[in-house]
Amino acid sequence: MDGASYRFDGFELDTSLCELRLAGERIPVEPRALDVLHYLISHRDRVVSKEELLDAVWGDRFVSEAAITTALRTARMAIGDTGREQRLIRTVFRRGYQFVGSVERTAAAEGPGARHDVPLPARLAASTGLGFAGRDHERTVLADAWKDVLASGRRRVVLVSGEAGIGKTTLCSVFAAAKHREATVLYGRCDEELSIPYQPWREVLTSLDHHVPDVFAGRHEALAPLLGGTGAVDLESESARFAVYSSVVDVLDAVSARGGPALVVLDDLHWADVQTLALTRHLVGRALTTPVLLIGTFRDSDVDASHPLTALLAATHREPGITRLALRGLDDGEVLDLLESVAGHEMDRDGLALRDVLRAETEGNPFFVTEILRHLAETGAVAQQDDGRWTAPAHLQTRGLPVSVREVVGRRVERLGPETRRALDTASIIGRDFELDLLSELLGEDPARTFQRLAPAVDNALVTDTAGRFAFTHAIVARTLYAELNPTARAITHQAVAEALERRSDLSGERAGEIARHWIHALAPQNRVKAAEHAQRAGDYALAHLAPDEAVTWYGRALELIPAGDSTRRCEIMVGLGTAQRQAGDPAHRESLLEAGRLAIDLGNDDLLVRAALANNRGDVSQFGTIDEERVQILRSAIAAKPGEPDGALLHAILAIELHGAPDEQVEEAASRALDLAREAGDDRVIARAARLAESALRIPDALGRRVPLLHEGVAAAERTGDVQLRGMLSMSYQEIALELGDRDAMDREARIRDSFARRSPEPYVRWTNEQMRSIHFFLDGDLDAAETAAHDALEIGVATGQPEAFFGYAGQIFQIRRAQDRLAEVADAIEQVLEENPGLQVFRAGLAYVWSELGREADARALADHLDVSPGGAPQFWSTTLMLWAKVCRTLALPAQASRLVPVLNRWRGQVASTGATTEGAIAYGLGLALATLGRTDEAAAAYDLALTVNRRLRAPLFVARTQLAYAELLAEAEPDRARTLATDAKAVTARRFAHIDRRVEELLERLR
Fold first, then answer.
1. Contact 952, 964 (CB under 8 A)
2. What pLDDT is stored for residue 392 in this prediction?
3. Which residues of 76-107 are buried (b: 16+ CB within 10 A; e: fewer)?
4. Is the pLDDT of residue 112 over 50?
């Protein structure tokens, strides 16, 4: 087109945008019809013959005159003209056509916010050959969502579902084309046959990189896995995945900053890989302030309870700004509109009868309607009169339609001739999308010859052609052709496709999954070795490109296909499988990697042994309350292999954290060696990771002074790398140490860093721990409702992703909240059950004794206190909290013998705060005061309470301040009643009726003091 704008009869044909508008509103018109209309307008001074139109619009392609008739009908329908009126386009008998309306030609209107630098994606612009009608409600919903994006600057999501052929993509195409002037329209599609991680997002980003590369400023390295490279994958895929997900949001923000929001269409999500859905979920949950309209389409009939899309739909059900659109078949009026759109005129009685038959047979499915209509017209079952009107034989009305849709597709292909049929049969084996040069190679001919074979299929809307890459217009077409082929012929062709792809594929492994699929369907037995090889490569590629769930699938296939006796290859696959399982949050990774480690030892393969050992840790202790001896054994064997400093440093750091709960000297030896090796390696990433792991391994109150400098060293190293994810992980450790130091200012500062990175991180471990820490902050603030909500959110994430201590953390947080609410009776049974299941965790023994002492079951509480243990046991992280709970039990039950054992231990930590990582008991000096008060050492207890008040006020924790004031008042009630009354009154003011347990006890004390 010439880029000009033509105005006529209230319409505007803007050839720069390939749009027809009426009163500013875009009218959906197929591209061929627009080309015909433009040509007639451009040559309106004369009659244009059919032959000239064919040459000008269709070029060298062979099409019948019926193509002109169809395009003219569509053009006339779009501009409100008819074959009878011929108000604007006149048919000149036996000569051709002439545009006779008055035309004003001007330069194409740019309009505010026009997006000429990013063209409408070919998939959305390509004509499917189908008409479009109805869907008024659905278009209104999409339009309202777009208006909301423009008005609020926030993301909106519309999920469009429906059966095959219902018009999901067509609806998106019509809407996207209408908004192309004011939006940057982007498109990506998932394919059933291909297994490319993040495929639709890769299409979206590749299009942006081609047309507006400036939006990627400084982000190409992070986004390398989605742009065909692997540069972002470094020591931790978590870090790379975080960078990728965050950068996608940043790019969409940059697109908006250029002048307008993005409109992103993700098509066929029922075929999406897990990582595509994970990135989409990240965008939905973490990009609330990014101005983008995301439209996703999927077949609900293909999504069952086990499908990964189900989890996305469930997770986003309550998210703001998300709308579900379920497309159903067109109703009678809409089918009538569709027929009139195709015919170019209003339906008479025969047309209405045809409508009724089509509606009954197809239930209004637009693809089925138009395919059957084409078939009926091509076979003469229905016909058009000279004026273009349809006639329907009487037998159609009485007997219905004679064929199914699959039969229609088959017969339509047959009518194109054997040359085209052969090309389409082979293409159906390649997949729904296929390249011209690959197809021509398989057919053994020149690409030009293959193009000639495909041309009739393109002209008859069975195949689309977008710049040399072809695709079946609908999956039904490809499946129909594939199903009709002889199984042996299929297998032979699959092998030919696999071999052709091998010849043209590079070492990146991008097409390994595609090649593996073809080998899997090729002739046995030679296909198994090849299939296993490419399945492993596909797993490696998916893992390197941050798609662990996809990698798990491919490694599993490789294990099924690998021949017996190839132990080294099996070990390699097992390492990859276990690594992918861990990254995907699957607890099965432990056994996979242990098996890989044992096999590597048998093979004497030190490299695979080290890889298996390094992969078998999530970045924290694997099991609380016990040491995973099998993991430790593999780690020690890997260390004995004497790897280089970076791997050696990380192996020692992981060993230190897995020994969490072992004798201190073992833990400290491993942690110290890890830092020495990391420093020798001189790699800041290794130093940061080793420091974080070593600091976590030393997570006991006595080691707080040694943990602080380790943390600072790790933070400095992480900041030198500029790795936001590494710094974010260290912020979680920093916040915990700040809590134990009673430094609320540092806690809040690190919370902002942690929350910012966690909300943009796809890692379940990060999101789980972030919700736990948010619960602690709310609890310290005295907002019990918000603390409980965050605790529930943490539990949901933790259970769903297999975090081993998810329930422990939740139980502790709910215990604290119910205690403050004076509702301990509600959790008594749950605490007792947890203790029965985990008898080695002393914190739950102390917690149950606390509950029973408060609920009047003193004998039961005393029985538990008889076995009070002041050692850290197998879970030193819970040590300080355990002793704090015992101190309160001793005070309530007057147990001086047990209290005397608590005092020297608590006194060592008197200036610190008790924390388990998921909960906090406030200043340890409070527990020390309780133990001293039990022993009658009033002055020392008072000093401890004074210190506790200082620490708890520094924490800005009203609950702990009021609790300490109450204990202090109880201590002084007999000797100094006036001061006790003042302390109790102050406690009452601090609680502000937020903490029922303290309110009740304060009222009881004040009553005694009256």
1. yes
2. 61
3. bbbbebbbeeeebbbeeeeebbbbebebeeee
4. no
Rounded to the nearest integer, the mean pLDDT of the chain is: 84
Q: Name beta bridge partners: 920.
A: 915
What is the average pLDDT across 445-467? 86
Provide the pLDDT for residue 101: 87
pLDDT of residue 63: 53
| pLDDT tens digits for range 395-406 | 554 444 555 667
Q: In the numeric block, which tokens belong to residue 68? A: 């002109």
Over range 524-542, report the average pLDDT.
86
Q: Which amino acid, one-letter code, is at 94? A: R
pLDDT in tens, 742-755: 999 999 998 888 88
Residue 199, pLDDT > 80, answer yes
Looking up tokens 């006890």, which residue turns up?
1001
Closest Cα partner for 117 from 228, 295, 255?
A: 255
Is 353:392 a contact under the CB 8 Å cutoff? yes
The pair of structure tokens assigned to 69 is: 């008739």
CA 294 to each of CA 6, 263, 388: distance values in angstroms, whole numbers, following the listed order = 33, 6, 41
Report the b/e string of 765-792 with b at 16+ CB within 10 A: bbbbbbbbbbbbbbbbebebeebbebbe
CA gyration radius for the chain? 35
Cβ contacts of 349 within 8 Å, gap of 6 or more: none
Is the CA virtual torsion 655, 659, 660, 663 positive or negative?
A: negative
**Residue 332 CB contacts under 8 Å (≥ 6 apart), including other chains:** 355, 356, 359
- Asked if 883 contacts 871 with a C-beta cutoff of 8 angstroms, the reply is no
Residue 165 to residue 50: CA distance in whole angstroms: 33
Helix, strand, coil shares of the chain, percent, nearest 5, are 65, 10, 30
User: What is the Cα–Cα distance from 233 to 552, expressed in whole angstroms?
Assistant: 18
**3-state SS assignment for residue 564:** coil
Tell whether the torsion through CA atoms of 881, 886, 891 and 897 is positive or negative: negative
**DSSP 8-state secondary structure symbol assigned to residue 164:** T
Q: Which residue is it, tokens 């840790």?
A: 617
The H-or-E segment that residue 106 falls in is strand 104-107
Predicted confidence at residue 347, as pLDDT, reads 65
Beta bridge partners, 48, equal: 97
Taking the CA of residue 21 as centre, how many other CA atoms within 13 Å lie in the half-sphere pointing to its CB? 21
**Among 66, 92, 697, 160, residue whose Cα is nearest residue 388:** 66
pLDDT (0 to 100) of residue 21: 84
Q: How confident is the model at residue 60, as a pLDDT?
A: 52
How is residue 397 written in tokens? 């009305």
pLDDT tens sequence across 121-142: 877 776 544 456 678 888 889 9
Grouping H, G, I as helix, E, B as strand and the rest as coil, residue 719 is helix
For residue 189, the SS3 value is: strand
Choose among 692, 540, 537, 548: nearest CA to 241: 548
Instruction: Convert the pLDDT of each residue in 262-272 to its tens digit.
Output: 999 999 988 88
Strand partners, 256: none
pLDDT at 854 (0 to 100)? 93
**Is the separation of the CB atoms in 236 and 579 below 8 Å?**
no
What is the torsion angle, in degrees rounded to the nearest 10, for the CA atoms of residue 711, residue 715, residue 716 and residue 719?
170
Integer Cα distance of 3 and 109 in angstroms: 10
Task: Please state which of the ranges 142-146, 155-159, 190-194, 962-966 shows the lowest mean pLDDT.
Answer: 190-194
Residue type, 816: Q
Q: Strand pairing of 292-298 and 156-161?
A: parallel
- The larger pLDDT score, comparing residue 320 to residue 533, is at 533
Q: Give Cα 562 to chain centroid, integer Å.
A: 31
Tokens matching residue 741:
């130091």
Q: How distant is the alpha carbon of residue 774 from its chain centre?
A: 22
Q: What's the distance, Cα to Cα, between the start and end of the chain in Å?
A: 95
